[in-house]
Amino acid sequence: MSGLSISKRLADALFEAAYLSLITLFIAFSVIPVIVAVVLSFDARSFIGPFPPKQFSLRWYESFLADSYYRDGLVTSLILATVATLIATIAGTLAAIALSRATFRGRAALQAALLSPLVVPNVVLGFGMLIFASRLGIIDGMTRLIMGHVLITFPYVMRTTAASLVGIKASYYEAALSLGAKPWKALAQVTLPLARTGILAGAVFGFVTSFDDVGVSLFLTDAYTFTLPVAILAQMRANLDLTIAALSVVFIVATVLLIVLLDRLAGLDAIVGRGVYGR
Amino acid sequence: MTAALLWPALVIMAPLLLGPLLALGHESLKPFTSGRIGGDDAGALTLANYAQIAAPEYARYFLDTFRVGLISLAFALLLGFPMAHFIVRRAAPVTRRLLIGGLVGTLFLSIIVRIYAIAMTFGPNGPLAGFSRMLGIAPSSPDGAELMVVLGLMNTTLPLVALTLIGTLQNINPRLEEAAMSLGAPRWKTFFQVTAAMSLPGILSAGIIAYAFCISNLVVPMLVGRGSILFVSNLIYFRFSEVANFPSGAALSIVMMVLSVALFYGLLHLVRSNWQEAGK
């Protein structure tokens, strides 16, 4: 009996060790590259030498700030992500509400079709949009980019909003109707305010998807209109200096700020959800 | 009223979904004469571009895509499940919030930045340059390039897998695990035969979603594949950027799209029909 309990305890200890080392590995693998990029961004050497650097400077930040190429890319990316997210959020939120109530045949098929850009490789979407736009005679970079980015942001917005609508009872909306509210008013004053966390989360996901996209944008940029990721990619292939590391730090800081903001506004738990047995 | 709410989405999305699809389908049937940009409009429609893809030298790109994607996915699940379990069952509220913030942050951080950071960390001058040698892989060999692609893909799928699995684990009653342990089951047995077994539909769903991300990736092979690991996405991009053979790129796009959609919805259907109410 005691032999059994010793082997059980040993097995438990082994399991615990394996469990904790996998978690440690996960964290190390996610965090170490970020630290390396941050440290390298302050490297004083003009070449990429052995890690860690001995001397530090802000030269890569200066070189990044002096480069108008990145600034142009950033402006394009911000405009593009804002416009695409706005369009996708309005259309996607309304569609999510409609689909959450709809009972018509083919509802599931319509939903799958609207979510399908999630599954199709971005390169395919970008290439298809390029050929489509050229058939329509649209050669303006920004117009093409907006078309492509609405296509890829819409599913994220609709899916996130739809998930948040699950918890909102249709009976609230119906109560407003039976109390004499017009359907539009009931929607604007009951359903939308209740779903605002989901809509906000959906919009943030959409914005990030657009801002980070490479696959679609590579096909749709032109010589004058290019997004920030496309600009970085072009520079990376031209010369792998540490300006990109400085730029990475800017991205990392912006992401951390976004997460803190999202946590304040919506709560990270609201985005992940607490589930049935969540604590 | 419900129909009115759908109209904006239909008016905007129908052309954006169907237009590129039809344009790709049409382009893929055009004959191509080298030196031109795009297909020949004068020629008769042909299936030659598809026949060309069926050649064995193209199979390599498809195989590499699906194989390397599967390896990355396996490691992402291996690391992602314990992490999700830890967040749901063990982490104190502050730790939980910090870890979830980290996961969402990693998900949001630009993929180019993440892959750049991986390249700098595991590359020849990086602090973890010895990692590949530790696994017995020469860093400059094709296997070394494959390792870098696997690491890059893992970095993009890990947060996705972990966040999806958090949702799954939160819907599993912790009392069941307590019951197993109070009946004398060891921890590891409870973990595998109760927790993991009950999470299986969620694990499969998370895996399918992550796999769709892996096989459609362009940036990772482009930046760290060193030309020896190329995915179908890279091949499509080359068709556009290097040789301007639009018909061949379009045929590749159609094939890849059909494969991805069939794989995704086929597998998801399989999971959901085997486990009622599963994978939600």
What is the percentage of strand-forming residues of chain A? under 5%
What is the rounded Rg of chain B? 23 Å
Q: How big is the Rg of chain A?
A: 24 Å
Helical proportion of chain B, percent range: over 70%
Q: How would a crystallographer describe the biggest sheet of chain B?
A: none
- The fold-level CATH name of chain A is MetI-like fold
Shape of chain B: globular
Number of strands of chain B: 0
Largest sheet of chain A: none
Indicate the mean pLDDT of chain B. 90
Summarize the structure.
With 279 residues, chain A is mainly α. Chain A has 13 helices and no strands. Chain B has a single domain, classed as Orthogonal Bundle (MetI-like fold), CATH 1.10.3720.10.
Model description:
The complex is a heterodimer of chains A (279) and B (280). Helices cover 76% and strands 0% of the residues of chain A. Chain A is built from 13 helices and no strands. In chain A, helix 5 crosses helix 6 (141-165) and helix 6 runs antiparallel to helix 9. The model of chain A has no long low-confidence stretch (mean pLDDT 88). With 280 residues, chain B is an all-alpha fold. Chain B is built from 12 helices and no strands. Chain B has helices at residues 2-28, 48-53, 56-90, 93-108, 111-122, 130-134, 142-169, 174-182, 187-215, 219-224, 232-241, 246-274. Chain B is globular and about 75 Å long.
